[in-house]
TrEMBL record:
Segments passing through the bilayer: 47-66, 127-149, 155-172, 179-195, 207-225, 237-256, 276-296, 331-350
Region (Disordered) residue spans: 17-39
Gene Ontology CC annotations of this record: membrane
Family the UniProt entry places it in: Belongs to the TPT transporter family. SLC35E subfamily.
Broad class of the protein's primary localization: membrane
Span of domain Sugar phosphate transporter: 49-347
Subcellular location field: Membrane
Function: Putative transporter.
The protein's name: Sugar phosphate transporter domain-containing protein
Start-end of Acidic residues biased regions: 26-35
Keyword Transmembrane helix: yes
UniProt source species: Phrynocephalus forsythii
Amino acid sequence: MNRVQLKRSAILKMALSGSSEPLLQPEEEEEEEQEEGSKEPPFLFRAVRIATVVSLYWFISITMVFLNKYLLGSPSLRLDAPLFVTFYQCLVTVLTCKGLSLLASCCPSGYVDFPSIRLDLKVSRSVLPLSVVFIGMITFNNLCLKYVGVAFYNVGRSLTTVFNVLLSYLLLKQTTSLYALLACGVIIGGFWLGIDQEGAEGTLSWAGIIFGILASLCVSLNAIYTKKVLPAVDGSIWRLTFYNNINACVLFLPLLLLSNECSTLYHFDKLGNVNFWGMMTLSGLFGFAIGYVTGLQIKFTSPLTHNVSGTAKACAQTVLAVCYYEETKSFLWWTSNMMVLGGSFAYTWVKGLEMKKVQMEPPPKANEKNDAGV
């Protein structure tokens, strides 16, 4: 039972960090392959299962972005309260985690697989540094989406990979290969070209760009802090989700007061509208579900395939947004998107090849120097 929990925690840690590096030792991976190889399901069943999981990931991820855009910047809704929207999404996640925990304790063993969750103030304090970064990540993500269009959203927060490389070097002293750096250069070029084209079309929002950069930075920091904090919750990603969001709910309260959003909500004409609260709750449930389906996609494919799927999903999301909002974009605008997506795909592919090479080759001697660049 403990081994199953450890495997799931490893899968979800990869989902949260977006890493294509294995979290299990080669010996453990061989044991898993031997265990699963004897009872491997038929090819058709595996193909249908993978297609279902990938489709579910695409549907939840894309729908969540469009839903959040509606809540954050719809002219028909006219709700200027991004912090409250984010706070409510965190509250829904807390209640969902607690509800699933209670359901798992009441149901027969194996029917609902969810860890037991109870509030421990000591653990909550241990998770607090990550929660501060987590608040920045989800808040800046929503603020970026509020000020930029869905079609440009992927480009606006495209620097996560670049910050991953930069922070890995500054904080962890990990170097990056030349090919991976070239891929990052393509991403940066696409980012700047996208800004230039948004400006040329008169739709550029510098506030959205700044929030997108800050969101990318927080996503990278979130991955680093997550690895440090996971031992405090016994390696359970669901317990970490619970504590992260309950800390966020508490920390958001003074921010709501300082931002004057309470006054905005008081004068909001749809505050008693059932449909509005239904959309708000649905966005919170989708935010909870994206972590689950991300873990499923990694489990039934691989971290590399997950990253490739995420890149393809971003491309589909951009095309859908342009069609849905009936926008007309220039050739160079599309070029900027293709550069960001192509650079992200190239980086994922290079890191995947490097990972396989490390697995196949014996570890280097202590006196050997790493030939990789910064």
